[in-house]
Design a protein that fits this description.
disordered N terminus; 2 domains; 3 strands; 13 helices; 52% helix; 3-stranded antiparallel β-sheet; mainly alpha; hpI Integrase, Chain A; 314 residues
Length: 314
Amino acid sequence: MVRKPAGKGQWSMAGEKREAGKFAEPLNPLHTRLQAGFGEWLRILNFEPTSQRDMPKMLKEFLLYLEASGCHSPENITETHLECYLSHLYQRPNKLRGGAISKNYIRKHLQVVRKFARYLAESGQGSFTVSVGLTGKSSNVGAILTKPEVARLYKATGNDALGLRDRAMLAVYYGCGLRKNEGIALDVGDILLDKGLVLVRKGKGYKARHVPLTGHNRGDIEAYLLYGRPHLLGGKNGNALLLNRAGRRLRHPLCRLAGLKGAAGIKKAVGLHTLRHSIATHLLESGMGLEQIQRFLGHSSLESTQIYTHITNG
């Protein structure tokens, strides 16, 4: 559990007082090298582009805080450092809107610290243990679609080749809960209809997994493979599963989802990850266990999956 600080701009380490969120720059040479190595590690493990962009920035804030507290090497990081850093985050002002930063944002910072410790361990450098955590309800999940709203998305698809493609797209992102890049990277050979499985080859961290393909999800993808995809391919060769009008790999499925959302009359902010969050929530509501949902989503830790309990129990 993390305790909140007693007063603004204060924490116990070294008896220092500083204005929240502001530290001397730049990083020391060791921390600069570690920040760059962390960013390269995220790239090698195929993290989402936004994570590759934002996580090194969050790590820099953590490293600057350590330096301001007199800690200049990761192997010297203690539990007290971590507790005080989270207390600092509780009081740090929001740089964009004023006021405090959200608990969801604090959770993201903690996730970055955990990933940094993992990076150090996997690269054979002096690492540290992270056992602090946040308490209470919080979630980085945005809008969740209800089952009737999902049904309206399906109803908004047409009966032509693009409509068959759109239903297959919904089967990939909602029915199978895939991440954006996982769905884009799917090839026809990854659809194992005879086994009722989808092989996700390019998951986060390049970890492959199989996702169940059953019911209408299987039927929608099979219908697309038989009738929709050949029409879009137009006699050309190609391995991509989801195709655009020109018969090439669909690189921007979010644009098509936005069209379906508008046709369905849904006012919520809806992205591809919304579909993933929605199926996870619906599976939990139907009684599926957290560990099963963890495997289904390809989460590396159960903590990432537990956010959905806050939604269903909230």
